[in-house]
Design goal:
Length: about 425
């Protein structure tokens, strides 16, 4: 990916807005559970509900927003979701200052932010497809991926320092400000965006809610990739939660060691995302997608063997480095593949369905593995997740997709049968 590859001024503003909000999110990483524990004295069940129930409810709330976004200009939607997240997050420091903060408010804010996150992702993918040529999509996705990993490296350490000095509420303020700056950047992007075509029906149909899933499941190459990513991401996140329990509890690692074990390997994601385009140019999109998808599945099983001390810490860092490097290659190629296989007029619904499923599956698998960890122990549960992850490559597309015809019309509502002709009147 050459640095001289120009993608235009408007993509530059979108890229900057994404990086700003991503940095704010990582600065506030772990702030909600800390507020729940330190300020509201919540127990383990409430903290678990904050992440799982909030994500599930947010995903459910985002389901009708996909079709709604599809038929509207995307830049105003992006700005609106940024402002909604900013306003929702600012209610927390306001309530804290007034001594009125409650757990229910934390839960409601997490729901609103989760729904807005899904909507923003869907709208940004659709917006990016209108900004760029098809051959530039991989470059753009690789840049967004490298930005995500960069903010992962620098955000949590800075956020941890800010929490230590100012408390977790301060990082929530920083996160809110990042969304405000993102909205201002998107507004500064300017430019005219074509108005999406409305379908003939004046009101949205109930079936519109399922259009994204219908498109994914009807496509022979998107369908296996959809199930692969949902299962893989859910199991990896479930493993991460159990690994935190194992490392910080039984193995006695300090919090800074735990943070270091994940911050340093994020460099692999930065490197992998920068190699994605050269690898696709040399070996082809499908081969890179499959090889990276296979290789990323072999690493997590090694986490079941982590032990105490420096050796255990190095093992975690090595496994995470390999895993994150492979994900850094896989993710932008997968994101580009989805955009290329989806007509412009259906991108928002497709990405919304994809994100809703990812959020819901991650929440459900994390909750399920929490129960398994309690019954079997975290190490055994991590090993079980690793074994299942070894099977996820079976869900990758087995052959390269045929070229997608953007001009192919989208399926619309089935035509109503023509009424039978009225009987001829007698003239007698």
């Amino acid at each position: 990916m050459g640095n001289g590859h120009r993608l235009g001024r408007r993509f530059g503003w979108l890229w900057g807005a994404y990086g700003t909000s991503a940095l704010g999110t990582w600065l506030a990483f772990g702030a909600f559970p800390l507020i729940a524990v330190q300020v509201l004295h919540a127990g383990p069940a409430e903290v678990a509900a904050l992440s799982s129930v909030g994500a599930l409810a947010g995903a459910a709330l985002a389901v009708p927003l996909g079709p709604w976004v599809e038929f509207r200009r995307k830049r105003p939607v992006l700005i609106g979701t940024d402002l909604v997240r900013c306003a929702a997050l600012l209610t927390i420091p306001a309530a804290f200052a007034l001594g009125a903060l409650t757990f229910v408010q934390l839960l409601l804010v997490s729901v609103v932010v989760a729904a807005a996150d899904i909507t923003f992702r869907a709208a940004s993918g659709a917006y990016m497809k209108t900004l760029l040529r098809a051959e530039d999509l991989l470059v753009a996705n690789a840049r967004l991926e490298s930005t995500a990993w960069t903010t992962t490296i620098i955000g949590p350490p800075l956020g941890g320092a800010a929490i230590g000095l100012l408390g977790p509420v301060a990082t929530v303020v920083a996160d809110a400000v990042s969304y405000l700056l993102s909205a201002l950047g998107l507004r500064a992007a300017g430019g005219r965006e074509p108005r999406p075509e409305r379908r003939e029906a004046a009101r949205p149909r109930a079936g519109d809610l399922l259009d994204g899933w219908r498109h994914i499941l009807a496509d022979a190459t998107l369908r296996p990739l959809f199930f692969n990513t949902a299962l893989f991401n859910g199991l990896v996140m479930a493993t991460d939660a159990l690994l935190a329990v194992l490392m910080l509890g039984r193995l006695g690692f300090a919090p800074w060691q735990y943070g270091l074990a994940f911050a340093v390997p994020a460099i692999g994601g930065l490197l992998g995302s920068r190699l994605a385009r050269p690898l696709v140019t040399r070996f082809g999109q499908h081969r890179v997608l499959v090889v990276a998808g296979v290789l990323r599945a072999i690493w997590p099983f090694g986490l079941a063997f982590v032990g105490p001390g420096a050796g255990g810490l190095l093992l975690v860092m090595g496994v995470e480095l390999g895993l994150i490097f492979c994900c850094g290659v896989f993710n932008p190629v997968c994101a580009t593949y989805r955009l290329e296989r989806t007509a412009t007029g259906r991108v928002a619904r497709t990405l919304s369905a994809w994100s809703v499923t990812a959020k819901a599956s991650t929440a459900l698998l994390t909750a399920a593995w929490g129960v398994l960890g309690a019954l079997l122990g975290p190490r055994t549960a991590i090993g079980l997740a690793g074994v299942l992850l070894l099977a996820t490559p079976l869900l990758l597309p087995r052959r390269a997709a045929a070229p997608f015809d953007e001009r192919k019309p989208e399926p619309g509502p089935e035509p109503k049968p023509a009424p039978a002709p009225a009987p001829a009147q007698s003239r007698g």
